[in-house]
Amino acid sequence: MLLPIALLVGAPLFVLDVVAADDNPAAENAENTVVVGKCQDAKCRADKPASPPADWSHRQIENFPEEETPVSLFNGRDLSGWEGHLDPYWSVEDGVIVARNDEDNAPQVSTYLLTKKPYRNFRLVFESKLVESEMHSGIALWGRKYDIDGEAFSYQGHLVMYPSGYGFWDLYRRNLIYQDKDGAARAAGHQHDWNKMEILAIGDRIRHVINGKLVADWTDPQPELCGRGPIGLQLHSNSVPQEVHFRGLVISEDPEDTLITVEEEVAK
Question: pTM to 2 decimals?
């Protein structure tokens, strides 16, 4: 059941579609669904203030097709709607999800912060920054929480990797399934700065955009391995201190089959 809540912010009137918790199979995520509003007319969409935190991911909301309903996976305050080894690895600092380990507690198996809700076909727009170490991070999808070697929050499924080891990995199954052979992802990405990304996962096809450049477009030859599952943020296994930041994390389900963050090349 959708409960329309009209909010007056300055002059424009807009409506937030709030999903009642008793109608939501993932009630823990219900509070996050109010982060992104849907205006009722074009003027409202133009005048609507940005949803906090005012980062690139949330500013992209106006680029989402009208037929889509973008939702924030992260409320900017805490890790409601997520699960994982929060202590000692995951925290929220200044509106950013922080993954961090020291040398003495470095994970021996890659650990993940997982959405409590599963997803199948989706568009995810977000930003991520590798702060410390040279090991890649990534976004896990189309799989399941995987318990291995005492790590209850590892993952079996697909992984979109960045930076460093750009490409796609099939965790605990086929290993490397797509490699950045032409260097497109490496050329587009930043090693130790914010990367603005879009992942469009529809059917058996994954597209990855980094900083406005389409760097990967891959179709899985084994579509039976592309199933509904939680989305995971990766803190890679390591033996040294590492830190990765994530913010934005705006998602829409059953999206249009088109990318929204690719920048057009300007003729020189």
Answer: 0.81
How far apart are the C-alpha atoms of 82 and 153, rounded to whole Å? 11
Cβ neighbors of 239 (< 8 A, separation 6 or more) are 103, 106
Residue 56 to residue 45: CA distance in whole angstroms: 17
Strands 175-179 and 167-171, how do they pair? Answer: antiparallel
Residue 152 corresponds to which tokens in the numbers above? 């209850």
In eight-state DSSP terms, residue 46 is: H
Is the four-CA dihedral 255, 45, 27, 158 of positive or negative sign? Answer: positive
pLDDT per position as a tens digit, 198-253: 999 999 999 999 999 999 999 999 999 999 999 999 999 999 999 999 999 999 99
Q: What are phi and psi of 230, to 5 degrees?
A: -70, 155
> CA-CA distances (angstroms) from residue 114 to 41, 117, 120, 232?
35, 8, 14, 4
Contact by Cβ (8 Å): 33, 20: no
**Other C-beta atoms within 10 Å of 190: how many?**
15
Dist. CA 149–CA 231, nearest whole Å = 21
Integer Cα distance of 151 and 154 in angstroms: 6
Domain annotation for the chain: domains and CATH numbers: 2-49 (no CATH), 82-253 (2.60.120.560)
8 Å CB contact between 96 and 247: yes
Distances (CA, A) of 35 to 165, 199, 213: 33, 20, 27
* Distance between first and last Cα of the chain: 52
